[in-house]
């Protein structure tokens, strides 16, 4: 009787009751992979239903987009089957392959269907409403998947408010276990203990070719992904609940997930983010347990002690959450990044050889007689005058550097050297090209955190051209110690030179260009000397990071006779905490951009209200130096920024309000203060030309 009433309440699977159209993102590009492999936007799009009005709107889009419009006469699933692991002998049926959705597919599902403009406190209600509209209420098969077993069940009812489904075993029992043995009686007892209810996130929908169950499979995947990678247990406890949860939290977290998935975030930053998540979760659990044990009307000494402890935990929790927001936000991740290096160095310093001998490493694939004679007369004979000097030959630079001990010399003969791994320099060695930089070229084509990493106490580079491809963290990173670089060419593709805290860089007569981030990033507590360099065609010329923590010492910078030109953003940009000393300009109050406040709501991963940039505008000039203090410069906030390919597209969407010409005097004074800032040991003879947003800028957070 109960079964009959349940079946009567269950709607049929008549396709005529559902209207399904595609999600057109307006770019007309639906070619996400080879035909017949996986599933692209068109396949997923036709599995998401919309109402008739949306269908009419979508039908007005470009007919040449190549998107297949799903209709009630079309049959068959638009999703792919998840094949069992190779060599597996599972007797369980196949399930839908839904775990490899593209970024924009998840983005549109959460934005348009699941979450919309809900607040954090409304997430559960919106999710329940979404599931009620998309998930078949009964009579479909699924695998109940846990870390221990996979078992075939039949869904009899879906309780969307609790995110659970009432299920029953499919007999005879079909089950795969991992490390344990489970029989029908054990599984029955387990289900009885849970009142036959299992979490929706643990259900994998069994594959059907009819297409009737596609919506259910996709909806469960979106919920599963959301609660695993997006939702935080402390989100709904935000004091300020009046904000768009999708804009503030969901979009930046999805972007960060795909940036990490596609190796666009340094390994050290990924590790730090995961560590912060664990610490924040642990702190929140401790705080919640302590809070639940407090009595509202008790004045006992024990409760007073617990209250003090709770305040400390609350401060820690807010600190962790703020650090997480910085990493999740594409713009802040670019300008602030992370200060430490949690990644363990795989190459340790060897120190000097036990024998005290020095080795000259010659790198060449082949050389002519003339080159060899020139090398002998110019370098080898003077260096090898002592009997304890040895000469070794290598075909490529990485093996030469890996063979070095403290005090060794690497001479790279002219040629094009392609390397597939990063170059780690842990010892005090000298690497020099035997010729002009354009003749001695080292190119890296494979992915990695950085191209060249230096941690030696006294490392010297000269006369070499480095060409970077796909390095995440920089073409050259000075993590610690001292690096002296002279007459080198740095052709960047992603980011430029990074000088970490406590490291020292001396860069003379070098040419750096092409960085999608800053040409040179200078961290707190570092020492950087830039003399006679050309830094051009980068996102920003030089990015100086001045953090708010008391433990951070200010960087010490010398800039003399550099030419910084044709950068997309600023010539020099300073990142610093907003101390309240500068006049602030409320977001959205600019007369030049009266609608600027709308941008914050439209962009995912937008800045929190307490992370605001202030700006001042004056007409930019083509050439400036510290010897001409009367020339007006431009100081402003960072308008665009990028962190690899993903942050480039996101960062360009950021806009901050500008002050009009009435602030010229105030701006000039602000720039003079920046040039006279104590971080600059010396600032003279520098030229700034045709930088897109001006010569000097400040970003206050």
Automatic annotation (TrEMBL):
Pfam families, A to Z: Beta_helix, SHCBP_N
Region ranges (Disordered): 21-94, 575-652
UniProt feature, compositional bias: Polar residues: 68-78
Compositionally skewed regions (Low complexity) per UniProt: 613-634
One BP term from GO: fibroblast growth factor receptor signaling pathway
Keywords tagged on the record: Cytoplasm, Cytoskeleton
Domain Right handed beta helix: 460-576
Annotated GO CC locations: spindle
Biased composition (Basic and acidic residues): 49-58, 589-611
PANTHER family per record: SHC SH2 DOMAIN-BINDING PROTEIN 1 (PTHR14695:SF8), SHC SH2-DOMAIN BINDING PROTEIN 1-RELATED (PTHR14695)
Protein's recorded name: Right handed beta helix domain-containing protein
Organism annotation: Astatotilapia calliptera (Eastern happy)
């Amino acid at each position: 009787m109960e079964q009959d009433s349940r079946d009567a309440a269950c709607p049929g699977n008549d396709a005529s009751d559902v209207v399904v159209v595609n999600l057109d993102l307006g770019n007309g590009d639906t070619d996400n992979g080879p035909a017949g492999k996986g599933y692209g936007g068109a396949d997923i799009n036709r599995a998401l239903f919309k109402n008739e009005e949306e269908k009419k709107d979508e039908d007005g889009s470009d007919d040449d987009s190549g998107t297949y419009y799903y209709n009630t006469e079309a049959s068959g699933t638009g999703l792919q089957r998840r094949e069992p692991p190779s060599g597996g002998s599972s007797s369980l049926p196949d399930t839908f392959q839904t775990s490899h959705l593209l970024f924009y597919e998840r983005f549109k599902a959460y934005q348009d269907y699941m979450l919309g403009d809900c607040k954090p406190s409304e997430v559960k209600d919106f999710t329940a409403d979404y599931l009620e509209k998309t998930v078949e209420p009964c009579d479909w098969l699924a695998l109940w998947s846990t870390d221990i077993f996979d078992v075939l069940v039949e869904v009899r009812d879906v309780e969307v408010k609790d995110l659970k489904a009432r299920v029953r075993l499919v007999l005879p029992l079909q089950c795969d276990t991992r490390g344990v043995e489970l029989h029908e009686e054990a599984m029955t007892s387990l289900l009885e203990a849970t009142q036959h209810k299992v979490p929706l996130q643990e259900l994998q929908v069994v594959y059907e070719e009819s297409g009737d169950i596609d919506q259910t499979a996709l909806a469960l995947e979106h919920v599963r992904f959301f609660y695993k990678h997006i939702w935080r247990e402390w989100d709904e406890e935000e004091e300020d609940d009046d904000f768009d949860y999708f804009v503030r939290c969901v979009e930046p977290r999805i972007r960060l997930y795909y940036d990490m998935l596609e190796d666009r975030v340094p390994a050290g930053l990924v590790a730090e983010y995961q560590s912060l998540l664990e610490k924040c979760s642990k702190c929140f659990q401790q705080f919640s347990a302590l809070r639940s044990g407090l009595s509202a009307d008790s004045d006992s000494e024990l409760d007073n002690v617990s209250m003090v402890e709770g305040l400390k935990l609350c401060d820690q929790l807010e600190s962790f959450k703020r650090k997480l927001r910085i990493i999740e936000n594409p713009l802040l991740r670019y300008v602030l990044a992370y200060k430490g290096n949690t990644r363990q160095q795989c190459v340790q310093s060897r120190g000097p050889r036990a024998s005290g001998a020095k080795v000259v490493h010659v790198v060449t694939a082949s050389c002519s007689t003339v080159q060899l004679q020139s090398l002998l007369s110019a370098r080898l004979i003077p260096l090898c005058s002592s009997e304890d000097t040895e000469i070794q030959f290598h075909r490529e630079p990485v093996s030469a550097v890996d063979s070095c001990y403290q005090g060794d010399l690497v001479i790279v003969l002219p040629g094009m050297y392609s390397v597939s791994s990063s170059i780690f320099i842990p010892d005090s060695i000298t690497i020099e090209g035997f010729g002009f930089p354009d003749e001695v070229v080292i190119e890296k084509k494979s992915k990695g955190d950085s191209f060249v990493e230096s941690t030696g106490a006294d490392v010297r580079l000269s006369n070499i051209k480095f060409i970077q491809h796909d390095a995440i963290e920089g073409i050259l990173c000075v993590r610690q110690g001292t690096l002296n670089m002279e007459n080198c060419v740095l052709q960047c593709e992603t980011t430029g030179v990074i000088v970490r805290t406590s490291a020292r860089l001396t860069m003379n007569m070098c040419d750096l260009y092409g960085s999608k981030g800053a040409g040179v990033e200078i961290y707190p507590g570092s020492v950087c000397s830039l003399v006679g360099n050309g830094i051009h065609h980068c996102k920003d010329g030089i990015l100086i990071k001045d953090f708010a923590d008391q433990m951070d010492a200010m960087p010490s910078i010398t800039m003399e006779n550099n030419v910084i030109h044709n950068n997309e953003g600023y010539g020099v940009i300073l990142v610093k905490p907003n101390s309240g000393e500068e006049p602030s300009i409320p977001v959205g109050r600019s007369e030049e951009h009266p609608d600027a406040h709308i941008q914050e709501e439209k962009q995912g991963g937008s800045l929190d209200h307490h992370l605001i940039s202030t700006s001042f505008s004056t007409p930019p000039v083509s050439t400036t130096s510290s010897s001409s203090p009367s020339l007006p410069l431009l100081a402003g906030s960072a308008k665009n920024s990028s962190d690899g390919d993903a942050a480039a597209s996101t960062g360009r969407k950021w806009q901050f309000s500008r002050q009009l010409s009435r602030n010229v005097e105030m701006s000039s004074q602000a720039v003079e203060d920046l040039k006279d800032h104590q971080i600059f040991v010396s600032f003279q003879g520098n030229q700034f030309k045709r930088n897109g947003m001006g010569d000097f800028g400040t970003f206050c957070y």
